[in-house]
Every structure is written in C-alpha cells, then in structure tokens.
Amino acid sequence: MDKPSILVQLDTDPQPSVFDRVVAVDAGVQHVFSYGGVTPENVKPLVQGCLFTRGSNDLKRTAIFVGGSDLAAGEALYAAVKKQLIPVYKLTVSVMLDSNGANTTAAAAVRAASRHLDLSRTKSLVLGGTGPVGQRVARLLAMHGGHVRIGSRQQERAEAVCATLRALFPNATLEAVATASSADGPAALAGRELVVAAGAGGVVLLPKKHRDTCKMLKVMIDLNGEPPAGIEGVEPFDKGTAKDGVLAYGSAGVGGTKMRTHRAAVAELFARNDATFDIDEIYAIAQKQV
Asked: At CA 147, angle to CA 220 and CA 232, rounded to 5?
C-alpha cells in the first residue's frame, strides 16, 4: 500500500500562502506541511526531513513546493533546496517553484497567446516586463523566437532583463523600451501584434487611446486582477473576446488555465522523485491544458 502523499510547502513569507495550500489539496495531495519564513540558511533540516524518513521507493510520495510573494527570494530558496538533494544515493524528492504565482501565470498567458499567434514570428510588448510575472512572460516569448520588447518605467531595468535573456537565448531578438510617460506608449506599441500587461495591480499601463494607434495589434492580455484594468477596456473575464478587432484576455480569462496548470504541476510532482519544475517545465505542462 502506497504511503500518503505529502507536500512540504516552503514559503519565504512569514505566513505560508493559503492559496498555494488550497491548490495543493485540490490537486489531490493528502497532507500539506506548511512552513513560513524559510531561507536558504535554515532550509537544510526541512529538506533532510523529507529525504531521510522514507525509503527510496516511497520518496516519490513526498514533494516540495517553494512559494512566497518574492520571486527572487523564491529562486534563491529553490536553488538551496536542490543543493540539499543527494541523487548519488537516490535521496531526492521532486521540487516546484511558483513564487508569487509567476511561473503558472506567465505560462498560462503565453499559452493563451499561442492559441492565436505563431510566437516564433510574433512581435510582442511586455508591459511591466521587469516584474516577476513580466520577466517570466518575456522569457517564454524570447524562447519561442519572436521579437520581444520589454517595457519598464526605468529603461535601464528593462535593459538588464534583456541582457539576462540574451545570455539564455543568444539568438533572441530583444529590445528594452521606456514606458514612463504618456508619450512613450505609442512608440513602445508601434508594430506590435501582442501586448501583455504584467505590471502592478491597479495601474493602467495601456490607455485605450494609445492602443487604438496600433493597427497591427491582434491579441492583448491583461494580467492585472485589480481595478482599474492594466489595459483599458479589457475586462477580467474576457477570454478571447473581440474588442475593436483585437482578441482580449483578462486576468480571470487566463486564470482558468493558470489554475489547471498549477494543479497539474503539483500532481505531476508525485509521478517521480526527481522532477524539478521551474518556468520551462511548468510551461510544458500549461501547453497540455485545453
């Protein structure tokens, strides 16, 4: 008889995310052990508690989820967790990173865009492209091979993201653009077929008057779940809704795929004991979602 499934939730925030715990239960996990305030410095005994309590044949029934609101802190913790695994002795468990929901949200957004566009040829603009979700969206679009503009109020921050992505994808075509003033909007949007708004909630990143200047625009995706909309005129539940000849997705319109992806990824952690799920692996799972 199989031992019960256990997901060890390691959160970089003081209070572990209730959202992530609920999704784990809905994904079929039998027990969720939640820990807050976890850092690379204090994670070792938590990982060892996963590795040394079950025999190697049962380790696939234990997995680790790294979350929290700070993606950079989550990335550091995720790396520290993997360093504690001992593959030479087959003492490993599967690990997933989804701090701030950045991986599952970005994967769902790009999956939505891919339903309508050939992303290997698409000219796109990522607004809020230096934030956690924006960086993940830009990475996936760069991986596909299209021309990606990364927008930020501080162009030097957008340049830094471009540099990081060029190191990963040397053949990617990336361009940093400033979006600090109202005059920047039309220039940043010029010639774009896809725009994804991934900035902070409650901030209008793309007014309708600027959107109307771009005659090539085909798909717009607003990931902002708080009013006002990040892309003016896009409603939360838009899901491929035609708006002035442009297909629109709102946060809830993308959210169904995001939630299915999150649950499916958690469930897949228990298929083996050596999986590591970051953005690329989670995007592959998102592509399977209907």
From this structure: 20
The Cβ of residue 185 has, within 10 Å, a number of other Cβ atoms equal to 22
Would you say 128 and 134 are in contact if contact means Cβ atoms under 8 Å apart? Answer: yes
Decide: 19 and 255 in contact? Cβ < 8 Å: no
Domain 6-97 classified CATH 3.40.605.10?
A: no
Tokens 């040397």 locate to 170
Cβ contact 131:158 at 8 Å: no
Q: Where are the domains of the chain?
A: 6-97, 105-254
Do 6-97 and 105-254 agree at the fold level?
yes
Q: How far is the C-alpha of 224 from the C-alpha of 251, rounded, in Å? A: 6
Q: Model-level pTM greater than 0.90?
A: yes
CB contact at 8 A, 100 and 133: yes
- Helix spans in the chain (H): 18-26, 44-51, 71-84, 102-114, 132-144, 155-168, 184-189, 208-211, 251-269, 279-286
Higher pLDDT, 111 or 225: 111
CA nearest 265: which of 32, 109, 103, 34? 103
Determine contact, residues 65/266, Cβ cutoff 8 Å. yes
Fold of 105-254: Rossmann fold (3.40.50)
Q: Bigger pLDDT: 155 or 39?
A: 39
What does the pLDDT look like over 236-246, one tens digit per residue? 999 999 999 99
Residue type, position 199, single letter: G
- Distance between CA atoms of 142 and 149, rounded to whole angstroms? 10
Residue written as token pair 């690329």: 280
The answer to whether 64 touches 50, Cβ cutoff 8 Å, is: yes
Name which of 28, 36, 126 is nearest 74 in CA terms: 36
